[in-house]
TrEMBL record:
Keyword DNA-binding: yes
Domain DDE span(s) in chain numbering: 84-221
Transmembrane segments: none
UniProt keyword annotations, A-Z: DNA recombination, DNA-binding, Transposition
Name used for this protein in its record: IS6 family transposase
Organism: Belnapia mucosa
Length: 241
């Protein structure tokens, strides 16, 4: 007898109450938008090709509602990162202006955390480090590798004095050691490009959270879910709801 293929299914969840489409369709659309460099209009046509007639504006609302929720729900399932942090910031256009996306990965390229900020200063750096240290899958870093941004030494020193950061954490300002995180920025840039930027800070934060969540899954950071196993990833996301 042929083995029955496992199909992702979603239990009834209040998160989908009142929606015209099923949870499976909604999560399929959200997951594909956050994984691949497509526009909302492109995804509208892809769904139409599968006999699902839906406006691109509705897909936008789905992404805004569920992208951040997926990111929140996967956090407890992530493997622990190591103590070698590579920190950098890249630029994202929000409402016609450049904003700063702080990002950190460990020495294996696993995502530690991210933060969208309107400023690039000491307070923004401290806010990012606090957010990263508060995640369940991170540890207090033994080394923090950054570029020549002068805000990082000040932020690290102040956080050590306040007891927020391990006193033995070593800061390294060495650009070539940050190639890992700089290469990782390319994925975010590729996903943002079809949308030509974001219309608001709120929209950007929610969408970027979804991009980063799907990146963590595809990097194999979720326990018992392979980074290249698309079926297992779809099932995992369905079981979060």
């Amino acid at each position: 007898m042929a083995r029955r293929r496992r199909v992702a299914s979603v239990r009834p969840d209040q998160s989908f109450k009142g929606r015209q489409f099923t949870a499976e369709v909604i999560l399929w659309a959200v997951r594909w938008y956050l994984m691949f460099p497509v526009s909302y209009r492109d995804l509208e046509l892809m769904l139409a090709d599968r006999s699902v007639e839906i406006a691109h504006t509705t897909i936008f609302r789905w992404v805004q509602t569920y992208a951040r929720e997926i990111e929140k729900r996967i956090r407890p399932h992530l493997r622990s990162s190591n103590g070698s942090w590579r920190v950098d910031e890249t630029y994202v256009r929000v409402k016609g202006r450049w904003s700063y996306l702080y990002r950190a990965v460990d020495s294996r390229g696993q995502t530690i955390d991210f933060l969208l900020s309107a400023e690039r200063d000491v307070e923004a750096a401290k806010c990012f480090f606090r957010k990263a240290l508060g995640q369940p899958h991170t540890v207090n870093p033994r080394t923090i590798t950054v570029d020549k941004n002068p805000a990082y030494p000040c932020a690290v020193e102040q956080m050590k004095e306040d007891g927020e950061l391990w006193r033995r954490s070593r800061l390294r300002q060495c650009k070539y050691l940050n190639n890992i995180v700089e290469q990782d920025h390319r994925r975010v840039k590729r996903l943002v490009r079809p949308g030509l930027g974001f219309g608001s800070f709120h929209t950007a934060r929610r969408t970027l959270a979804g991009y980063e969540a799907m990146a963590m899954i595809r990097k194999g950071q979720v326990r018992k879910v392979g980074g290249r196993d698309m079926r297992a990833q779809a099932t995992f996301i369905a079981e979060l709801f």
